[in-house]
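Input (structure):
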């Protein structure tokens, strides 16, 4: 579980979108950090409470598409159910057939125009310059551009 944000917005990377680089000591931390970056783009965490939680299960053949699907699912929850999240517990495992399976719990609450301070309306994650890689230090890093 990630308790502090481990991402940085990269203002000089794109002009009309939002770019960020997320990091984690493990894949689980990386995916949680990237989720925090997406969520904090959409709403101010100081106005968001943890009144409910969702459980997610996502599979993919590779780590990049797993992260892409994961972040896309968080955006879809905002668009479909009006849910935004501020805490994530992510568990990634490799299945017997070589695929990656993400199981995650996310805590947050429904968006409320009277209560929450909104940021940007994230439309989608783009694949432009998107990557997930392990650094020589053993830590993990991802680069993501959000369409706003």
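Output (sequence):
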């Amino acid at each position: 579980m990630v308790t502090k944000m481990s991402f940085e917005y990269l203002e000089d990377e794109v002009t009309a979108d939002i770019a960020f680089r997320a990091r984690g000591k493990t894949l689980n931390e990386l995916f949680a950090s990237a989720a925090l970056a997406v969520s904090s783009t959409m709403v101010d965490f100081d106005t968001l409470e943890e009144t409910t939680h969702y459980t997610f299960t996502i599979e993919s053949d590779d780590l990049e598409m797993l992260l892409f699907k994961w972040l896309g699912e968080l955006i879809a929850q905002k668009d479909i159910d009006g849910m935004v999240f501020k805490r994530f517990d992510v568990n990634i495992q490799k299945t017997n057939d070589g695929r990656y399976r993400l199981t995650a719990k996310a805590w947050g609450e429904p968006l409320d125009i009277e209560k929450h301070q909104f940021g940007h309306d994230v439309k989608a994650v783009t694949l432009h310059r998107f990557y997930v890689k392990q650094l020589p230090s053993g830590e993990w890093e991802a680069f993501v551009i959000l369409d706003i």
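Notes: Residues 63-81 form the longest helix (19 residues). The CA atoms of residues 86 and 108 lie 6 Å apart.
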